[in-house]
């Protein structure tokens, strides 16, 4: 492996130069700022709080990967979407709520922190239950603009996702089975950060009654 180069490293060194263009919201979000997020969430004292982002694919293709990271256990979820729109994000959350049921969903997804991207602008659609009319299923918090570090766990997990699906991946050619294989690997390797437990082990421990 000597001499070492960026090419053989799982995590690449930073490069100076131009950055990818990021599509940002044309207006401030209607939702709550991360400044209103409780300290218990900020300090990772309570489970059930997630960070969410989109991993984009090859340019000029719309299919996108929606990724979610639980802040305490680092449990990773990933879903292929037909496009990076607010409607597609809400559709994923609707499917999850139907999968777990309203009450279990509320236990597992107490809050979700997102950036100000256009795909996360439908705060009401993300928060309101698709099963029980008029009830909130989760609470959405928005990071400050251009502060990805406020979703630090999510950003770190995205590095692992990119190890399997590098920039430029055409997600129209990626199957749900391939996504599951990558996510299973992420959730099933022991980490020093977690006391050499896996994300799945901790997630099942904390959410045994809900899953």
Summarize the structure.
With 211 residues, the chain is α/β, with parallel strands linked by helices. It is built from seven helices and six strands. It is 30% helix and 14% strand.
Structural summary, described in words:
With 211 residues, the chain is of the alpha/beta class. It is 30% helix and 14% strand. It contains seven helices and six strands. Strand 2 and strand 3 form a beta hairpin. It starts with 31 loop residues before the first strand and ends in a 5-residue tail after the last helix.
List the helices and strands and how they pair.
Blueprint: E1 32-33, H1 39-42, E2 49-55, E3 64-70, E4 76-81, H2 86-100, H3 102-108, E5 111-114, H4 123-127, E6 139-142, H5 152-164, H6 176-187, H7 199-206
Parallel strand pairs: 1-6, 2-5, 5-6
Antiparallel strand pairs: 2-3, 3-4
Name the descriptors.
six-stranded mixed beta sheet, 6 strands
Strand order of the largest sheet: 1-6-5-2-3-4
Helix content: 25-40%
Low-confidence stretches: 16-27
- Strand runs, count: 6
Percent of residues in beta strands? 5-15%
Tell me the span between the first and last alpha carbons.
Answer: 43 Å
Q: Output the radius of gyration.
A: 17 Å
Silhouette: globular
In N-to-C order, the SSE pattern is EHEEEHHEHEHHH
Mean pLDDT across residues:
89
So how many helices?
7
What structural class do helix, strand and pairing data support? alpha/beta
- Largest beta-sheet details: 6 strands, mixed
